[in-house]
Amino acid sequence: VATLNHEKTSIETQAERSFLDVIGGSCQIPVGVFAEIFEDQIQIDALISSLDGKNFIRKKISGHKKNSREIGSSLADKLLLAGGSDILREIGF
Predict the structure, then answer these.
(1) Beta bridge mates, 36
(2) N or C: which end of the chain has fewer CB within 10 A?
(3) Global pTM?
(4) With 90 as the cut, is the pLDDT of residue 26 above it?
(5) Rounded Cα distance, 3 and 36, in Å
(6) From residue 10, how far is each of 2, 28, 36 by CA, in Å?
(7) Distance CA 26, CA 85 (A)
(8) Which of 11, 13, 45 is nearest to 31 (CA)?
């Protein structure tokens, strides 16, 4: 299977999944995350939103791609502390 693996996509996906693991993200809650690698850096853009989309917290973070999981988790923590946990609590999550 390793010959089929696309390393860039794998690293980006690891960052996104680590973000979702911390948030508790699923298809049932309004969160979004997108990671993209540029040379040796990964940039992650994410948000937590109210159901109507009027209230949201959005942040970006970047760092070395070898730390993709830690960067994704860190961004989740930052969003939760910036008010994301309040939004999630208001919608019942």
Answers:
(1) 43
(2) N
(3) 0.90
(4) no
(5) 21
(6) 11, 24, 11
(7) 15
(8) 45
